[in-house]
Amino acid sequence: MIYLELFTVFVKIGFCCFGGLAMIPVISAEMVSHAWLTLDEVADIVAIAEMTPGAIGINSATFAGMKMAGVSGAVVASLGVMVPSLTLCLLAGFFLQKLKGNPLLDNALRGIRPVCMGMIASVVVTMSIENFFPQGAFCWQALLIAAAVFLLQRRFHAGVPVQIGFAAVLGLILFSI
């Protein structure tokens, strides 16, 4: 049953990730392994999820659930990704208050942070290959857009909506040539 499968997969995603961009590799792997989405569709969902308000996990779950089973699938997938977060946040809040300043907790958190960076780096490599070499050919337009948005963000500290709008306009111009 697709609803149970959506719920289970997104509960797993919710329990395996700490949220934010670190969720993308897990979401990508699950969507592709279940043949629910292609890598291109995952990239589109990530782009849309970044443009819309809310957490990327919820937005991705909503979009993937909607694609697979309509509105009810979106609700089930969204609930699935929220259950672990709500449960863990309640437990973490309780224990962080009790263990505040504990060197073991501080060291454990220092060990967890690099994992998130490694996961994000993995997604960057995978999505870069998919975006810069679609169908095996180099796409100079995608590289130019990525470089321009990188410069826009680093030099001018533009917000996410400005970066996305700028990239959309560049995409319309460069891919129309």
Based on the model shown, name its key terms.
7 helices; 2 domains; globular; 177 residues; mainly alpha
Question: Can you walk through the features of this model?
Answer:
The structure is a single chain. The chain is mostly helical. The protein has two domains: 2-133, no CATH class; 139-177. The chain is built from seven helices and no strands. It has helices spanning 2-16, 24-33, 39-51, 56-98, 103-132, 140-156, 160-174. The chain is globular, with a radius of gyration of 18 Å. One of its GO terms (cellular component) is plasma membrane.
Topology:
Layout (H helix, E strand, L loop, with lengths): L1 H15 L7 H10 L5 H13 L4 H43 L4 H30 L7 H17 L3 H15 L3
CA radius of gyration:
18 Å
Q: Provide the domain count.
A: 2
Strand content: under 5%
Tell me how many strands there are: 0
The multimeric state of the shown protein is single chain
Q: How do the helices and strands follow one another from N- to C-terminus?
A: HHHHHHH
What's the story with the biggest beta sheet?
none
Cα shape: globular
Q: What distance lies between the first and last C-alpha atoms, to the nearest angstrom?
A: 46 Å
Q: pLDDT average, as an integer?
A: 89
With helices defined by DSSP (H or I, 4 residues minimum), what is the helix count?
Answer: 7
Structural class label: mainly alpha
Q: Give the proportion of residues in helices.
A: over 70%
